[in-house]
Amino acid sequence: MTNPKVDWYFDKAEKWQEEIGQLRTIILDCGLTEELKWGCPSYTFQKSNVVLIHTFKEYCAVLFFKGALLNDAEHMLIQQTENVQAARQARFTSAQQITEMEATLKANIYEAIEVEKAGLEVVLKKTTEFKMVEEFQTKLDASSSLKTAFEALTPGRQRGYLLHFSQPKQAKTREARVEKSIARIMDGKGLEDQ
Length: 194
Fold this sequence. Notes:
Strand order of the largest sheet: 1-2-3-4-6-5
Radius of gyration: 20 Å
CATH architecture of the largest domain: Alpha-Beta Complex
Distance between the termini: 36 Å
Helix content: 40-55%
CATH topology of the largest domain: Aspartate Aminotransferase, domain 1
Oligomer: single chain
Largest sheet: 6 strands, antiparallel
Number of strands: 6
């Protein structure tokens, strides 16, 4: 059943309106509950997140929160980046493509529901398994207060910084990112915190 609180998302869509409406119908046919989370239509099974619909410039997508656990026999699901551990996307660029892939999409949704029923969880990499760039390690070694502040951050905030620092190829850029982040780390803030 559609949730009136979510209707605005579908009404405001300038691009992909037909496609996301189609995805909504397919997902609701699978018996999930529609909610609004993170500004997107999110679909749950017994209050556990299963999938959500979101749009991008080049495509619209169904995000499977625990997509890494799915069999995905038809190879529909995409890992957005190498750093995404649990979620996977099914991407679409036309209503016709959604129609052609409906059976596969539904099979993946039903499998995702079974994952929730079974209580399965994606085993995430530990923060210590993420790459520590030399530029940041040098700063941590030189400042016990910085090291203490970094260790006090939540694991997610720590991973955010480690990923941010390791992205640039040039040492100069990595060094600049580390320098710009020190004050935020000392304040106990993550990259995206206000």
